Amino acid sequence: MGVSYSTARWLAPASFLIDFAAQQYGLLSSPNMKDINDANQSFFSPYPYFIGGFFFPQQIIQLVWLYRLWKLDPRKSELERKELDQIVDFVPYYSVGNLCIAVWMIFWNNNRLDISHIFVTINSITQIYYLVAKLQPMNTRSTSSVLTHLVSKTFAGIGVLDLLHNGSAGFFKDQAPSTLVKALTGIGFGLASASSDWIFGGCLVYDLVAMAVGQSGSWRNLLGAYAVGSAAIVGARNWARPPYYSKNPAYDLAPENDDDEAAERV
Predict the structure, then answer these.
(1) CB of 66 within 8 A of CB of 16?
(2) pTM listed for this prediction
(3) Helix 198-214 to helix 49-71 angle, to the nearest 10 degrees?
(4) Which conformational region is residue 217 in: left (phi greater than 0), alpha (psi within -120 to 50 degrees), or beta?
(5) Where are the alpha helices (DSSP H) in 195-216?
(6) What is the pLDDT of residues 4-43, one digit of tens each?
């Protein structure tokens, strides 16, 4: 799913702007996205303001990442090409995600949660696939690596919450969780936490806290316990096996064919 540098430079910002415009539509239309949320409560419905609390800083990180996409020039040096490659590699998945969320918002605000669930599912699967199959380990001395990890993992992290929220609200409106749902929630988040770094693991904990605050009674308490358990698992896992490495990106430079390889993708 690779794209050229020139394609990436218009595709990523365009998808961001489309998604941003859709979010404004969701906030300003009547009924707005919160009205639909309030009318379709279910056992995975989060406290709605947790969504806004997540998206604002996440969009700032996206803007910094997009700025770096435009700033780096692969023709200047091998180092800039290597840094840019890490960003461009994620652009197709990022753009698919933005477009899916934009379409999701339209159907959500029209109270067609059955259709909106299709697009939120595509987004969530796309982002998780990228994390599992494509994303390279984070190099803490590479700005592009750090930013790409932050954008992709927060995108996937909130995608988990979107998938659970839309699925429950769309198909199990006003229902309480069954014993099976409670068990699978604990098992699923536990396994995911055991294989997550600080960023994605932190998003999973945030998802559980958001859902706990949005629920009530014993289910709220259980979700809160799951959040504490997930935080403990993420902390222990990353303390035992630090997920990141630190290496000067310049050490990996190849001495030949720099200009030819950069020109091929421009």
Answers:
(1) yes
(2) 0.90
(3) 150
(4) left
(5) 198-214
(6) 898 999 999 999 999 999 999 999 999 999 999 999 999 9
